[in-house]
Amino acid sequence: MKEAVNSKRPVNLDLRTIKLPITAYTSILHRISGVILFLGIAVMLYGLHLSLGSPEGFGQVKAFLAYPLVKLVIWGLLSALLYHLVAGIRHLIMDGGAGETLQGGKLGAQLVLVISAVLIILAGVWVW
Fold this sequence. Notes:
This protein is mainly α. The longest helix has 32 residues, at 22-53. The protein starts with 21 loop residues before the first helix and ends with a helix. It has one domain (22-127): 3 helical TM bundles of succinate and fumarate reductases, CATH 1.20.1300. Helix content is 75%, strand content 0%. Belongs to the cytochrome b560 family.
């Protein structure tokens, strides 16, 4: 049986103690926001279908959207959409060759977080 190349190397499997760079956090958040959007689209399409089906359906959806918990969910979906959009634009810019250095990647990640936070706050004001 073959022995590991460096068997004396420490193994840290505690995810709470691993220090990731800001670019990793923005990448993870981009993936999470994509999953949230994928799941949220089904709910939003059902609401659209119901509202377009009849005047009574439109009234039901309108009344349902008045609940604070529903507004919170809508704001969450808008937040995921806005973050995913901003992070996606960053990826497109990086595909064009800009911001590929370590410093450029960190700056781009910081800009994604700041711009997304501003847009999410504005979306919250709009929803509430």
